[in-house]
Design brief:
187 residues; elongated; alpha/beta
């Protein structure tokens, strides 16, 4: 009886193995012991495995967006190298960005809109140096983002929950659909 190789396994079983090797929980998911390691070396075993796994690695994990460059230099976690290949960046559909409310970001509404519109997932983690020292002005840079499958804004946002809910809903609105502007009195 001839021995079976890895590629002789059914695709469903290979996909389960790939998920264990290549996917880590989202950054916003609490983990007691930190992230489990990933093993992207499997992509270099052969062309068939590379083809089967590349979309999973880049399309199923949540990547950190750069706080100024947004999606231009994403990374899987702070301790991983940045991704600079445009073809690989194009495969990424899930982003997590950390935004500081008490600092001016170096990007525009247009850049944020272009970077995140149509993504599968966008999580905005908000923080500030001193609690209650800032409003949601920096978050307004994301008001043009549309078509996001799942949008979440969390962190130092207890002072403006109405705006956060409005922003999350507007980011998940279909592209091209008109949205009523947020009224400050809705807080």
């Amino acid at each position: 009886m001839p021995s079976l190789g890895f590629l002789d396994l059914p695709g469903e079983i290979r996909n389960q193995i790939y998920q264990q090797l290549l996917i880590i929980p989202s950054i916003s998911t609490p983990r007691l012991l930190g992230d489990a390691g990933i093993y992207p070396q499997i992509l270099s075993t052969c062309r068939k495995v590379h083809k089967e796994t590349q979309q999973m690695l880049y399309g199923c994990n949540t990547f950190l967006a750069h706080h100024n460059l947004l999606v231009d230099l994403p990374r899987l976690r702070m301790y991983y190298d940045v991704i600079s290949n445009p073809a690989l960046i194009a495969l990424i559909t899930r982003y997590h960005i950390r935004i500081r409310l008490d600092c001016d970001p170096n990007f525009s509404v247009a850049k944020a809109t272009d970077a995140f519109t149509g993504k599968e997932e966008l999580t905005i983690e908000v923080f500030q140096a001193q609690f209650g020292s800032s409003d949601y002005k920096v978050l307004k840079l994301f008001e043009g983002v549309r078509g996001v499958g799942r949008a979440s804004v969390y962190g130092s946002v207890s002072g403006f929950p109405g705006y956060v809910e409005w922003l999350q809903n507007s980011m998940m609105t279909i592209e091209g659909e008109t949205i009523e502007p947020f009224e400050r009195g809705e807080e």
